[in-house]
Amino acid sequence: MAAPLYIALGPTWAFGLNALSFLVSFLVIMAIKLPIIKEDTAKEKQGFWSEFMEGLRFFVGSPILITLLISGMIFMFGGMAYNSFEYLYGVENLHIPEVWLGLYVGSFGIGVVLGLPFIGYLAKRFTEVRCSGLV
After folding, report:
1. Residue 32 — left, alpha, or beta (φ > 0 → left; ψ -120 to 50 → alpha)?
2. b/e 53-69 (16+ beta carbons within 10 angstroms → b)
3. In Å, what is the CA distance from 29 to each residue of 26, 38, 112?
4. Cα radius of gyration (the chain)
5. How far apart are the C-alpha atoms of 117 and 20, rounded to whole Å?
6. Residues 105 and 97: beta-carbon distance below 8 Å
7. Do 68 and 75 form a contact (C-beta atoms < 8 A)?
8. For 70-92, what is each residue's pLDDT tens digit?
């Protein structure tokens, strides 16, 4: 929403509405009432490193979290490789001026956000195999 607001209303209103949204978010978070938890006085206060190591042991001991971490790293590596080739392809093959490269790369994200629900609808109506060429 930032870019359309910036273009339609100008920078002053766009930044003002952005600041207002942060204020509304802050007020909503402050309105949340949490139950008061009484701390056990017998429990010693742990230091940062002991709590960090406890969390690290929990993370490493969970095969699901490790799988999510590794698959996320592979996904991000592939995404960054794709983005770098997107720039090279745009400049070398499509001869896109450098000032338009941001719009060219950003249009992929816009296409994904707008196209995925549409492809989901088409996959329900037809088969996934017939729709795979559209992706």
Report:
1. beta
2. eeeeeeeeeeeeeeeee
3. 5, 22, 31
4. 24
5. 31
6. no
7. no
8. 999 999 998 888 888 888 888 88
Per the CB < 8 A criterion, the answer to whether 36 and 24 are in contact is: no
> pTM of the prediction?
0.44
Q: What is the 3-state secondary structure (H, E, C) of 22-73?
A: HHHHHHHHHCCCCCCCCCCCCCCCCCHHHHHHHHHHHHHHCHHHHHHHHHHH
Tens of pLDDT, residue by residue over 87-124, are 888 888 888 888 888 888 888 888 888 888 888 888 88
Tokens standing for 130? 């017939």
Please state, as a whole number, how many other Cβ atoms lie within 10 Å of the Cβ of residue 122: 15
Amino acid in position 132: S
Question: If residue 103 lies in a helix (H) or strand (E), which one and from where to where?
Answer: helix 101-125
